[in-house]
Amino acid sequence: MKKFLCLLSLAWLTCLAAPAAAAGDHVALVKSVSGSVKVMRAGKTLDVASDTTLQIDDQVIAAPKATAAIVFRDGTLLTLGSGADILIRDYVFEPKADKYAFSLYMAKGSAIYESGKIGKLAPESVKVETPTATVGVRGTRFLIEAN
Q: Which of 25, 74, 139, 144 could form a disulfide with 93 if both were Cys (CB 3.0 to 4.6 A apart)?
């Protein structure tokens, strides 16, 4: 019986640890949302609320009159405006290995970008693309619009 309880406890602890490992894959956290904001992930549409985590390949879509404030792991801030549609293409923040990447595609809408550590340590690794232009980061804050 004692052996069974030990195995049961071990199995229960393993189940608790699995979601925590999966949550570690996130690259950003939504801090606040106003209006209807959705994320497209692996063919599914999810409602975005405060504390929603974002991953590479997530597409975030803000409805008209909606906004979202997003904080990436390195402290980069991205505020999506009304009607924004972005895709998180790539994100790497590994300072100990000197590896950095930040790539977004903005199909439409507007956003305010404010550099975090990636933009300060490796500005050449930050790319924000729109249907007609690519923005390379040389400053710390900018507004981008894609119509």
A: 74
Structure tokens at 116: 């975090």
Give the H/E segment covering residue 4: helix 2-23
CATH number at residue 31: 2.60.120
**How many secondary structure helices (H) and strands (E) does the chain include?**
2, 12
Distance CA 103, CA 119 (A): 11
- Give the separation between CA 35 and CA 3, rounded to whole angstroms: 53
The H or E element spanning position 18 is helix 2-23
Report the distance separating Cα 40 and Cα 38, nearest Å: 7
Give pLDDT tens digits for 122-147.
Answer: 999 999 898 886 666 666 777 777 77
For residue 126, what are the domain limits?
25-146
- Count: domains in the chain: 1
Could you give the 3-state DSSP secondary structure of residue 125?
A: helix
Instruction: Look at the pTM and tell me if it is higher than 0.85.
Output: no
